[in-house]
Amino acid sequence: MGGVPLMDYLVVGTLLFGLGLWGALTRTNAIRILMCIELMLNAVNLNLVALNRYLDPGSVEGQIFGLFIIAIAAAEAAIGIGIVLMVVRRRGEVDINKIRLMRG
Amino acid sequence: MSGGAVIFAILAAVVLLGAWRVVTSEQIAHSALFLGLTFVGMAGLFILLQAPTFALLHVLVYVGAILTVVVFAIMLSDPEELRGPGELPPAERLRRRLRSPYYGWIPVVVAGVLVAVVLAGLAAAQLPRVPLGDPVADDLRAIGGEMFTRYAVPFEVASAALLAALIGAIGLTRRDAAEERGRTRGRVAPATPDAGGGEASPAGRGRPAAEPAASGAVSGTQGGTSGAGAAVAAGTAREVGR
After folding, report:
1. What tens digit of pLDDT does each residue of B83-92 get?
2. Interface residue B137 vs chain A (CB under 8 A)
3. A-chain residues within 8 Å CB-CB of B143?
4. What is the predicted ipTM?
5. Residue A68: which H helix or E strand, with range?
6. CA torsion A89→A92→A94→A100, rounded to 10°?
7. What is the pTM of this model?
8. How far is CA B79 from CA A32, A33, B27, B46, B164, in A?
């Protein structure tokens, strides 16, 4: 463990989440937005495991929550990419700003 | 600086640079590869946190499953995205990387403010420098035991969610396959208008608005029976379908 404070992990997690959020807000390619969402979920997992290790090392609660997040991320990726592929086949378009079927 | 701190610094740099390149790469295939780099770096961080089972499952699911699906999606989607924007002046390229094409600098400000607020909160917090005890000796056994006793209900809910996602993904792509079949039938149908009317109804299940229009157009051109007119009708039907 060599003297890495908990703070460092949380800072990395925050920066990773910030990068993911920024990417999800600025990119227009649907697949890239899904990738950025995975980055944000990864940041949350890092926080959970780090807090588990430092604050309650005798348990594995944080890791279990992280595993549930991984499961939901897998489901989200499958559905999200299925929808993207369907839209691409129907309209030949992955740019979310050009898909305005549900726009009022 | 101890060995652990050096390893942490390297892994953190890998993770953050990978994430940065996921967002800013011009070619989306590069984004996917950098996403894989980020995932592997995250697994290293988990090992450093003495959670090897979690690291293993992380690599298994993220690199083995999610990244593979993302790469498939990139291959099957628009090939124009693979090329990237081409030659631009460096300043314009940086600006284009940073800001959103539709909302300008607002997303950058939102993400920056969020990160700044959280970092300020972390700076004010009293956090331990070292773990408050030793880690669980056999973390695979501990995770398995907790997962199937105390967290059995959430586990089942998660498995139900995964099953639903699986069925949903298959359903999404299957319906699309039926549409593709309907579309090719619609194209073939105008050559034999009588058969076309019969064929249109099963195809109409996929696209309720477009296919009845196609069959109507086909019967309208029955008198003319010009191949070109039928082709135009099929073309307009396809346009409506879009």
Report:
1. 555 666 777 7
2. no
3. 60, 63-64, 67
4. 0.92
5. helix A61-91
6. -100
7. 0.76
8. 14, 17, 10, 36, 30
